[in-house]
Amino acid sequence: MLEVDKMLAKCGDCSRLQLLMLLLFCIINMLSSMHYYSQTIISFVPKYWCADDLTPTPAASSCQPADISWANRTCHNYNYELYMGYKSFTSELNWICDKAWQLTLGQSMFFVGSVLGTLLLGYLADIVGRLPILIVANLIAMLGNLLTIWGTNLTLFCVFRLISGFATDSNFLMMYILVMEYMRPSLRTVGLSICIGIFYCLGSMGAPWIAVLMGNWRGFLLATSLPFACVPLFYFVVPESVQWLISKQKYEQAVLCLKRVAQLNGRQVAESDYEQFIEECKFNQQRTKSAPNLIDLFKTPRLRRHTLILFFKS
To answer: Residue 142, SS3?
Structure first.
């Protein structure tokens, strides 16, 4: 919205608030990457072999004993060659060989939750605002991973991974939208790309080392989930989306957000500027026939094609 960009130029679109929001976005990137890769790390399958086998450690993983006399028998116990001492969910519960499908099912539920959560939380963000959903999504991510610690049977594991996956993408995208809106248009691509490129990468690289340091999958989930508890504090720093407030005709709240931006950035903005801003927004809304919504993504063949492509890629 052009009116918002013009008003932000007066309130400050590259100053203290923007730097603080970029810093918080860097934190979100690290938390989101560790949350996303938690599914891979807890499901890591180390080298294994039948514990009933008295032969030396085989060169590769094996579900059956190497001893010929055990050839037609089922192996119930396994030995593992833990990588750097890390004990994964898989090696603790022996979800390998004939039980490997259970691990695959749990992983699938994580991504099913991601699709459902992206749709539902995205829809709710248009109703209640970006900031509340940012906080809710990250708390869901924390809850899902913490509950997984006790999900040691198939049903609970699938349910808890579904909950954890429900927050994937939304816990990152809401902050992305807010930072992009409050930054100067010419700096959005550079600022956001640097944060994502560096800090998402750092979180991705750090996650395996946290797992090794903690020694087991429970410790890893605990260490990477508890930092999400700091996200509700963003409410006291990050302003709500002015564009969303204007679209909902919450003009007074939009002005309060802009005044807060100006105050944090040390700018003095005349009251008449805010009044003119609201008048321009009202005028433009009167010229607009209807507000865009989710259904608009399917109005034309091209939009339908791109929407379906993005949906199935997620």
So the answer is: helix
End-to-end CA, the chain: 27
Q: Do 130 and 178 touch, CB atoms closer than 8 A?
A: yes
pLDDT at 223: 95
- The two counts, helices (H) then strands (E), for the chain are 14, 2
CB 173, CB 119: distance < 8 Å: no
Q: Are 192 and 25 in contact (CB under 8 A)?
A: yes
Distance separating alpha carbons of residues 168 and 32, to the nearest angstrom: 8
Degrees, nearest 5: CA angle 139-144-146 = 95
Low-confidence ranges of the chain (pLDDT < 70): 1, 52-56, 65-73, 288-297, 306, 310-314
Angle between helices 217-225 and 130-148 (to 10 degrees): 160
Residue type, 97: C
Tell me what pLDDT residue 100 has: 87
Torsion of CA 27, 32, 37, 38, to 10 degrees: 90
Give the pLDDT of residue 307. 72
Cβ of 305: how many Cβ atoms within 10 Å? 11
Handedness of CA 130, 136, 142, 145 (dihedral sign): negative
**Which H/E stretch holds residue 47?**
strand 47-50
Q: Which two tokens stand for residue 219?
A: 């410790």
DSSP 215: -
pTM of the predicted structure, to 2 decimals: 0.85
Q: Is 88:139 a contact under the CB 8 Å cutoff? A: no
CA–CA separation, 158 and 289 (whole Å): 45
What is the full DSSP assignment across 55-67?
SPPPSS--SS-SS
Residue 205 in tokens? 């690289």
Model confidence pLDDT, tens digit, residues 161-183: 999 999 988 888 899 999 999 99
